[in-house]
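Please predict the structure of the following assembly.
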Amino acid sequence: MKPAPFEYYAPTSVEQALDHVAQLGYDAKILAGGQSLIPTMNFRLAQPSALIDLNNISELFYIRPASDGGVLIGAMTRQSTVERDPLIAQRAPLVRAAMPFIAHPQIRTRGTFGGSIAHADPAAELPAVTVALGARYRVRNKSGERWLPAEEFFVSLFTTLLQPDEILVEVALPPMPPRSGWSFQEVARQSGAFGLVGVAALVTLDNTPSGRRCQQARLVFLSCGEKPMLAGHAAKTLIGQAPSAEAIRAAAEVAAKDDIDPSSDIHASAAYRRHLVKVLAARALTEAFARVNL
Amino acid sequence: MTNLFRISVIVNGVRYEKTVEPRMLLVDFIRHELGLTGTHVGCEHGVCGTCTILFDGQPARSCLMFAVQANGHEIRTVEGLGTIDKLHPLQEAFREKHALQCGFCTPGFLMTLVPFLEENPKPSEEEIREALAGNLCRCTGYQHIVEAVKLASQKMEVKP
């Protein structure tokens, strides 16, 4: 099939884009990378009456160092750019690790960092990764802007806190805390296919003289529920513990049992997803703790 | 009343000026408006790779772009790689290694491989297979395609 007819707008500034969203409201969709939107339009699952194309707004394409030691990423920055950026490799290696799992290289040359987040596919990598990192998203409308914590942004399937008159313009990644390690794991049937289960992990060890107890453990699962699933119960079992193989195994069991809500579909049963969660959580935690530089 | 847009695109070094509906996909523009039928339509949702072209030098799915988005940009299709009299080294390697049967997937593979080999002139087999994961072939079983890439990387090696 081919897409249904629509009105097309190609603003060259954020201000112009915000005028369009304010006027057009629910009827219009933002066109960022289009790698998720256009397939749905090709199948006529989505038939927006208007598209607001952000690809000509150069002010939304950037990767900059933040004054707190983190990174600021313009929402339209191409995934392939993020994948190759030295600042990202240095300050946000968890992002760098996840990038090759996002579809295929040809998709990543058009797909955008912010677009993946705003689209909020439960199987997407960037929502899970940015939640794990404790990122914040800057969102603008005609009257102003607000910052939304990644952890609160995702409401349900393809549903976020974004209002119809708002555009996501920037993602702020905080600096990695000292004594931190990270890992990204994903299982898919083919390279680049949607993950059956994936996990983004960020762990931090404490600063006590005995020096090897877990201070923080952020494990976020994709494809295990309607949104990125932050494993709070698993984290609780680890905090204050030394990250032994036993502690990791126990945390992985808790994650699989209590922290996820996977569904069964043609790709995997809920039971298999739970199994994958247990395996990938253990792998991710093991790798993340091993990466910590004391 | 349909809204129409005038676009100007450079394809394989030639500038074209055309009028299109916003909903016209770039792949359909290339095939129907420009008559360049080497680029193919497969899945229309980005997974098969038969529509892969170079957009400003970057590999992209032309089924997941609208023609209006190409206004002011540069596109390279398989027709721009080589001619029957002067094949691109990748095309020669594909022929030598029998890396195509029906040929439907081949343009997509070639356009994926051009930037890949530029960035990775001496890829390992694992790197090749990972890079080609976004292009599906129903005929060959991929082995000969991988061999062709290895041969092409040797042919294209810039000797000091």
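The mean pLDDT of chain A is 96. Chain A has three domains: 7-53, 58-173, 180-291.
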